[in-house]
Amino acid sequence: MKLLVLISAALVCLALAFVWREPWLGGIGLLIAFVAMFTDRDDVRLDDEKGSYETTKSVRNMRGRNR
Question: How many independent structural domains does the chain possess?
């Protein structure tokens, strides 16, 4: 959600820079876009974080033995 808001704000600033012909607004829009890009997190949980007893390494070892 935060990424969508930041990218929207950056696009608005860039559009206003072209409409009002103020280059500093475009610079602010680009800065907001960089902040959005570098603060984006990957919220996908790993198997180790799900609270399971088996780690991903142990699962790979078990599957690798039977092949």
Answer: 1
pLDDT per residue rounded down to tens, the chain (67 residues): 888 899 999 999 999 999 998 899 999 999 999 999 888 776 666 655 566 666 677 777 777 776 5
Is residue 47 one of the residues assigned to a domain?
A: no
* 55 located within any domain: no
Measure the CA–CA gap between 63 and 4, rounded to whole angstroms: 39
Q: What is the pTM of this model?
A: 0.58
Question: C-alpha dihedral over 34, 38, 43, 46, to 10 degrees?
Answer: 150
